[in-house]
């Protein structure tokens, strides 16, 4: 498995023409932009966890039936410091870095102090966010990095703390139809309080229609929710939205702030300071977007760990939301690089299968309802919400499917009733081996798989003018455990789940995490000189690529985990 996880990947700096088999739909014009860890060793030093690896951006530019591939490491401060020192000198969540042993005692003491209240990494390896006219590589710290989506060049570094008081932030923001961004982060012990902060970034700077204005400067706090514990806030990777509400799960997978403050001195990573409290509850917070306050009823469910919300919507007086849930935190533990060896597929087993769970939360609780009565009157789900004493409601989900992760949906249905989920299928092993289309209405599924192939997160791109929810294509970057098989971009018909085309590239492609598709708003005359494939070398015709003029419309991209009204 080192060929997949542990070995550093090579950049493909110039556009490389892919070998296309099948037929790419003529309307599919744009760039699939993805992010994930690509470098796991620097000099003689190694990262402990796969999620710590240095960010490697890559893209597939699709135009007129042709595909060009390129990749480039994010030139973060973290990357530059590590490369200059030829070893890991910036700490990641699962790997604590230490100062040069030749430094004097004062330098060492300062390093200890700086790690007590850590200045986190800007190694933004998880996702890509669109903000106004710009695109940013994101991670779960307070830093994001602006990037050029065409060249993959790294631009300025942005610190959320200049605009909103958060130490951590999710990589799965939501977007409304106007392009406004809603995200949330954790503010640790700020003025004696630890809280979860939801903040809104406008699509454009207020009062200005000129390009180049930074909307981040006009970020505003949307809502704050006090953490149930000052020094043990919940970890969360995403959240949900409907047209009128926001869904946040305060789960018993917690960060121990005191342990984190002393981790550097104790010689342990920050990740070791995360604890799953299996005796605790998962609290469900429903925030009214109009009042910007949580509804007063206290909703909770059994302990679980959720990384990805799928979608949420309102029906018959309830908020229904779908999540991928685990019964423990074993997923994170499995991705320590020491576990990612040649026996990984056979021996690495989750202690709980990721399950698609649907919850129903009643928005208005009848005070006269009997204790123990089910408050959910929605006929489309078997999920229940049982009234208890003291204004508490115990929510039990409907289990829709077992064995899926990395969910995506048709973006137009975010926050609305929907039917289809596109995901990677996984069972007891976290290795994705199939792409899944799940119908939440009929409870049926379609699948794509191929021997020795590992698919990345499947991304849905709708056909222009489509009326059906599944009228479009699925894009997934596929890598292979067979060294003789080239990686490729897979294009599936989203309705039938049959293969339309694949674009194979002779490159050292990495297994990525998340990303988005940027449709073209028209092609400009910027010329690029692509690297030649062997097929080009044997041709008498020179190759050339006209670079896309990437769309900068208000909603001119396809992303996951989106919302409707912020």
Topology:
Elements: E1 12-17, E2 19-22, E3 30-39, E4 41-42, E5 45-46, E6 54-63, E7 66-73, H1 77-85, H2 105-116, E8 127-131, E9 134-138, E10 143-147, E11 154-159, E12 168-169, E13 174-175, E14 181-190, E15 193-201, E16 220-226, E17 240-241, E18 245-250, E19 253-255, H3 257-266, E20 274-276, E21 282-288, E22 293-294, E23 298-301, E24 305-315, E25 318-326, H4 330-334, H5 344-347, E26 355-362, E27 384-387, E28 392-396, E29 398-402, E30 404-408, E31 420-425, E32 434-439, E33 444-449, E34 453-455, E35 459-462, E36 472-480, E37 488-493, E38 499-504, E39 514-528, H6 534-537, E40 545-550
Parallel strand pairs: 23-28
Antiparallel strand pairs: 1-7, 2-38, 3-6, 3-39, 4-5, 6-7, 8-9, 9-10, 10-11, 12-14, 13-14, 14-15, 15-16, 17-18, 18-21, 19-20, 21-22, 21-23, 24-25, 25-26, 26-29, 27-28, 30-31, 31-32, 32-33, 34-36, 35-36, 36-37, 37-38, 39-40
